[in-house]
Specification:
The protein has 354 residues and is an alpha/beta fold. The protein contains 14 helices and twelve strands. It has a three-stranded parallel sheet, with no helix packed on it. A three-stranded antiparallel sheet has the order 10-11-12, with no helix packed on it. The chain has a two-stranded antiparallel ribbon with strand order 3-4. α3 (60-73) packs across α5.
């Protein structure tokens, strides 16, 4: 592989909470040609509600009602005795309208504390938790259901797709990770992704698959990929400062491992006991750009020198292409329309909108 920048790279980022500009450092207009919005609606998020809901707060009764909504309400014609209209829920705004109609009907008809075996307190709890998703993930999850997604089913060969989640809250980051990786797996199983093999690069994997802590949806998914992803063509590539803090089943299924310079505390953990004292000493004194490679085909560790990057480093890029300031709605619309017609100005947008 030649040491040169990748020729086909696309960046995806959610909007800021205001919804005018993308929540990414790559907001300079000179970089806008390959930066695209990432937004999801109710249908895209509902399958992964478990990632955003606190399992200590949502009990089995609430889970049952959430399943009812997913199976009987979303994307279906739904009505009931006393409802003001027939609902077709396709967005969070539609879901809130459905909840209001449901609770109004229960109160007006004096049905007691239950509706279709579901307790009213459970209904109110689920309403609060689901309605809160679009607020907690503002910019990524939209109330009106607008969708701008990765090109699942039309991936280009040897292309790089970058999802920028640096500006998102932790819950929203978990949602992005869970949905993107799950969709990749589903398409690879059906052989309709557009490519046969995908390498998923994850920075700081110890955050998503820690050695200890709760058994989350994301961690279970990562363990499954690490153990059974090869037959699908799904390869997990990660980087982290502390390998000892990654779940042992992920580490144990790693085919190739690369080690940079590390401190004595990390080298003293049990995961490095298989290395000889001389190798551990060398790892503690590696020069910048040196790496150690471990692979089952090699009986001894191999030390290599990593080439200087052929791309602009992050700090250099920020200095050369500084982040654009928060735009007004008119300026954001004009910038988006300029991809279709470069002559469009903010003044023209203001005249049309007036």
């Amino acid at each position: 592989m030649p040491a040169e920048p990748f020729p086909n790279v696309q960046y995806f980022a959610p909007y800021t909470a205001k919804g005018f500009t993308l929540n990414t450092l790559r907001s300079n207009e000179q970089l806008a040609d390959n930066v695209f919005p990432l937004t999801w609606g109710l249908r895209e998020v509902m399958q992964y509600a478990e990632v955003l809901l606190n399992k200590d707060d949502v009990d089995a009764k609430a889970d049952a009602f959430i399943d009812f909504i997913g199976e009987r309400v979303i994307d279906r014609e739904f009505t009931d005795d006393g409802f003001s209209k027939t609902h077709r829920v396709q967005s969070f705004a539609d879901l809130e309208d459905w909840f209001r109609d449901l609770l109004r009907t229960v109160e007006q008809q004096n049905r007691g504390e239950h509706w279709r075996t579901h307790h009213v307190a459970t209904i109110r709890k689920v309403r609060n938790r689901l309605s809160n998703i679009s607020t907690r993930c503002a910019g990524l999850v939209t109330d009106e259901g607008t969708v701008s997604d990765l090109p699942f089913g039309a991936f280009d060969d040897r292309a790089v797709y970058v999802v920028d989640v640096a500006g998102l809250e932790e819950d929203a980051q978990d949602l992005v990770f869970a949905r993107v990786v799950t969709k990749l797996r589903e398409h690879l199983e059906r052989r309709d992704l557009g490519v046969n093999h995908v390498m998923v690069f994850v920075d700081e994997l110890n955050k998503y698959a820690p050695a200890d802590g709760a058994d989350t949806y994301v961690r279970k998914m990562l363990l499954d990929i690490a153990e059974r992803g090869r037959y699908l063509g799904l390869v997990l590539f990660s980087a982290q400062q502390f390998r000892s803090q990654v779940h042992r089943r992920v580490v144990g299924n790693s085919g190739t491992s690369l080690y940079g310079r590390m401190d004595a505390d990390e080298l003293a953990t049990p995961g490095y006991a298989v290395l000889s004292p001389a190798t551990r000493t060398k790892l503690a004194t590696l020069e910048k750009g040196q790496l150690m490679v471990r692979h089952p085909h090699f009986t001894q560790p191999v030390f290599v020198r990593f080439p200087r990057p052929a791309v602009m480093r992050g700090r250099d890029g920020v200095e050369r292409y500084p982040q654009a300031q928060e735009m007004t709605l008119d300026a954001a619309v004009a910038r988006a329309l300029r991809t279709l017609d470069p002559s469009i100005t903010v003044g023209w947008v203001q005249e049309v909108a007036a």
